[in-house]
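Per reviewer request, we include the raw input and output of the structure prediction for the construct analysed in the revised manuscript.
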Amino acid sequence: MSDAHEKILSLFLTHNCLLFSRIRDLCGIQSNLLSYRLKSLQKKGYLEKTPKGYKLTVLGERQLPVLSRTEVYYPLVIVLLQIKRQNKWLFVRRTKRPYKGYLSLVGGKLLFGERIEECALRLLKEKTGGTGVVTKICSVAHERILSGTQVKHDFLLVMVNVAMVNTPVDVIWSTRKGRIIPSDKWLITHKVPFAEFTINEKTGTLYME
């Protein structure tokens, strides 16, 4: 999105609806150029024109948290699946950083507008080919990964219990031993509803907050 588009959309942080003339005065953009910018934003689905003036669409409203920040980052919401059989858990091996090469619980990002249960079943299908049923939400944890003294990654982890219906053959069942992501190992070992911890990226050491 261009700076000019962001400048126009930023006006709607404090206004629900704006007339063309008001947008022109607030932005200081010439009428012909503003008309072009507004049509472009309408075409992209961010703005709609009403008898009372211009207003944000639902898509436009989604941009507000981004427009209201200046180099501020937010934690990623990650859904983790605890799938246990006897005394072993279902793991996958990570192929991407952070924790490349580690064993991890099946997990991934919660998509915008997605329910936690929907996310869990989608991830199960995508990453193992299996199907299952979410039985409960086990815990929520805030994980920060440090590089030196700086926070490099920030995650909000939501762990759910899943009962497998169809189990693929080519998956990893393991105990809590081995090279497992520290936060995953901690969560399946300590059954608590909420936790907050920091992890040293270099050593893998987990510190409770």
